[in-house]
Amino acid sequence: MSEDEKPADKPPERRRMVKLPTGGTAAGRSMGAKMKTADDKSMSSQQWIKRQLSDKWSVRARAEGYRSRAAFKLIGIDDRFKLIRKGSRVIDLGAAPGGWVQVALARGAASVVGVDLLMIEPIPGAILLQADFTHPGVDQEMLELLGGAPDLVLSDMAHNTVGHRQTDHLKIIALIEIAADFAIRTLKPGGHFVTKNFQGGDGGGVLARLREEFETVKYVKPEASRKDSAEVFLVAMNKR
Predict the structure, then answer these.
(1) Rounded CA gap, 121 and 176, in Å?
(2) Active-site positions?
(3) Which pTM was predicted?
(4) What is the pLDDT of residue 36?
(5) How far apart are alpha carbons 231 and 200 in whole angstroms?
(6) Does 3.40.50.150 match the CATH number of domain 68-239?
(7) C-alpha span between 115 and 101 (Å, rounded)
(8) Pairing verdict, β 192-198 and 126-130
(9) Mind giving me the DSSP string for the chain?
């Protein structure tokens, strides 16, 4: 429904807990388009484009049909911990452009629901929502579309940084808390949870809570994560 078609008495849109990203596309960043406009970009942007084009994981993603290099982060995690089983039900929070959804399906998941503030181009076999999953009712909608409680909840969510270290840190922790709360509330017993974090980031009570709710909790840095990035992933296994 377009904006002009909305009923006049519809209540105002709820304030989002996560700001809608201002860049990117539903199918991921287009290298060709970026190269065409590279002359108009800053030097740092051009260096980023060059790195993306030469990065082996980006090259592999394009060659193997994955929408982003991030697919290999989940592949690395799953190779180690065997989280995705044949017939699994999987929910992917912050799913755009869809690389993790593709991996879940390729590894045998029977039902996959992805949600993001950005529109995600369709992926056969998956249900993809453009929504803020923190809005009331969206979590229940995802569970209904999934067909039951998930076996695995994934979160590769990120926020728009503001450049203030303490503020950005608090936003990171807030996303982890929201995703962890959702996973704890909805996962089947024995289910697993994976979320992005950053080295040196104090998770506050999140880590302690995960250790109470899951048998095993580990920090992991997949091979596909850039060496100069502080990015790590929290892997919580076997929900009690």
Answers:
(1) 25
(2) 196
(3) 0.78
(4) 44
(5) 10
(6) yes
(7) 10
(8) unpaired
(9) --GGGS-TTPPPPPPPSSPPPSS--TT---HHHHHHTGGGS-HHHHHHHHHHHH-HHHHHHHHHT-SSTTHHHHHHHHHHH----TT-EEEEET-TT-HHHHHHHHTT-SEEEEEESS-----TTEEEEES-TTSTTHHHHHHHHHTS--SEEEE-------S-HHHHHHHHHHHHHHHHHHHHHHPPTT-EEEEEEETT---THHHHHHHHHEEEEEEE--TTS-TT--EEEEEEEEE-
Which residues of the chain carry a pLDDT beneath 70? 1-54, 160-165, 199-204
Copy the structure tokens of residue 50. Answer: 């060059």
Distance of alpha carbon 55 from its chain centroid, rounded? 21
Tokens encoding 112 = 């996959």
Please report, as a single letter, which amino acid is at residue 5: E
CB count, 10 Å around CB of 100?
30
Phi/psi of residue 58, nearest 5 degrees? -65, -40
Q: Which two tokens stand for residue 48?
A: 């980023």
pLDDT at 194: 98
End-to-end CA distance of the chain: 42
Domain boundaries of the chain, sorted by first residue: 30-64, 68-239
Which amino acid is located at 31 in the chain? M
